[in-house]
Amino acid sequence: MSPTAKKSLNPVPIKDRMKVPRQLMPEQTACERAHNFEEVNLGYSVELAQREAQRCLECAKPTCTENCPVGIDVKEFVQRIVDGDFLGAAAKIREANVLPAITGRVCPQEDQCEGKCLLSKKVKPLGIGYLERFVADYEQRMGVSVVPSAPPTGKKVAVVGSGPSGLTVAGDLIQKGHKVRVFEALHEIGGVLVYGIPEFRLPKQIVREQIDYMRKMGVEFETDVVVGRTVTINELLEEEGYDAVYIGTGAGLPQFMNIPGEHLNGVYSANEFLTRINLMKAYKFPVYDEPMLDLKGKSVAVIGGGNTALDAIRSALRLGAANAYVLYRRSEAEMPARAEEVHHAQQEGIDFQMLTAPVEFLSDGKGWLRAARCVRMELGEPDASGRRRPVPKEGSEFDLPLSVAVIAIGTSANPIVQSTTPGLGTNKRGYIQASEENQRTTRKGVFAGGDIVTGAATVILAMGAGRRAANSIHEYLTTGEW
Amino acid sequence: MFKIIHAQFLAPGIKRFVIEAPRIARKQKPGQFVILRIYEEGERIPVTIENSDPEKGTINIVVQSAGKTTNLLNTLETGDSILDVVGPLGKPSEIANYGTAVVVGGGVGTAMAYPTAAALKRAGNRVISIVGARNKELVILEKEMREVSDALLITTDDGSYADKGFVTDKLRQLIENGTRIDLVVAVGPIVMMKAVSELTRKENIHTVVSLNPIMIDGTGMCGGCRVLIDGKSEFACVDGPEFDGHKVNFEVLVQRNAMYRDAEKQSMEEFQRLQKAEAEESEVCAATTGARQGEQR
Description:
heterodimer, A: alpha/beta, B: 297 residues, seven-stranded antiparallel sheet, 30% helix, disordered C terminus
């Protein structure tokens, strides 16, 4: 480990750093990528990464780290990039984050580290996400060396769900010397990283590499286990000898709008639409067996303004949709999606219909979707979420011809674990109650985190919860105190 | 991987597999199902659990050849393996002593009706079972159903075995004869479950049907299996698969199950073409290298 007060090798004097422009991320051109599932961003070269890293102002009190849900030491890892010590930079990130190649791609950096970057007061913020990704990819190419774990403690932990929070818990606890087994309901490890986020934003190979790394660290995985059905939490604790259980089962059931015509053929939930494409590879039909509706030359709309909505509509475009609309009931400023995704989607030719909401799906008379009846909205007073509430404009109804509509308006709690685990407290929306500080639930030895506690959020927030849970589980296993 | 301990045709195109799946065997209850995937490029399909043996750690599933996946599945033999089997999924049947229960099994649905009939019998009900099939060859689990029923009535569409007609004819006769019926459970083709529900609606007999919409994950995550129950969307995988037959919108179920008909047809034709090509090739090669396995795709 290098001493903290090491002299910087940065050739750019502090006062000149604002003059260096933010280095652009090389990417596939919009017209090229709109027709393939290859990753949009191509990644920094060594040269680009070092030039970008040199922009860091080396703040005495780095707000980037303060605003990172897992507290990555940004200043230090960026410094190591400047110094050309890329593996050292990777090691620094790994101290706080077990999935850097993933977060470097999917974190909403503009709301976190980059949002508070001092540079952003005058110029564009430091490309922290791009640099994180660079370092993680460099490390992967060089061959990741497995960090040695602490001596075995003899304790066993079951992790329910292999999404970002479960993987974080598993990675942290295995390093602390505990035995860890991860249970996954689907046939593939990764949760939302494999069924939800598309290839063009997060290549599945990246996810597999991260999971291979965890296997090498000693984490065991068991697929095809729906905890609550195949085995219960009680059985894991009482019969299978686990000393603690972490529940990270994710957001769960897709919400529908409860408007007429939602059962028509051609109306999908975003979860189903994306699962068919990402997990089941329906875009490779008939090489893969899982089918999906042929979108070539069709009009497709997604309803919603989050990352899931954009993932769905950009997938539809890549599958040949002639018209690809985003229908969002608020305005662009309120869209919860990552800024970069909105920008990419606009470049690719997605038609954003802001302040627009469907009120009915219309049938062709044979059970298939023909059009969405929509209304235009205007923004009224702020609602409970603090965002201005959309109000329908009278007389603004119009019919938008559509073959496929994808509903991406959020999810509600999946009840399987809660309903089969006596004594596990839930809130009024059915999510599991867990302490924000240590992720403990109302059941001794049972911890929970991620979307099943907070409702749908981001990969990095789930990982932050995973990190807190791992520390808290370690403490419980060491002291036995609850 | 889940090993096939025993595979055997019960009828033409209907095969029973005994599969090593200790976790599922321990938990399975009547009315539940599994989802399986045969190979890496395969789709996930829901399949009926006929029975399980927690001691031996095995489950029995019964599969009828319909599309590519079920046809391919039914080429598997004892000793082969299935890549993924997950379950038991869905809510179990609500078993209680209702009084007299009529359990109706149509075609391969009889395999799912069987454990429910057995559980109802054990709970003290008088169980009258009605099994229907297209013809004699397709009547399955007759012996098993007889063992758990106070009476077993059989119909075949063509009259090649037992009484000619439909399961609804038998149910109607029971009603007309004044048999007191407290519960009807119907598992089978949608048209059959719909006909049964329409018949019992008039008589106000509580009727439970087991729905079979298209599914992917089976845990409530995707919402693809949503069915209209009393005008409201419910998910068959977590809220069902059993629902009050008088509240089910069967038209929407039929319509949604037809969503991928073109793709299913394409897969099936491709599968048949490859099977045929392989059969021809293996004839040619038999003399020298022998038949090649595992290349059906």
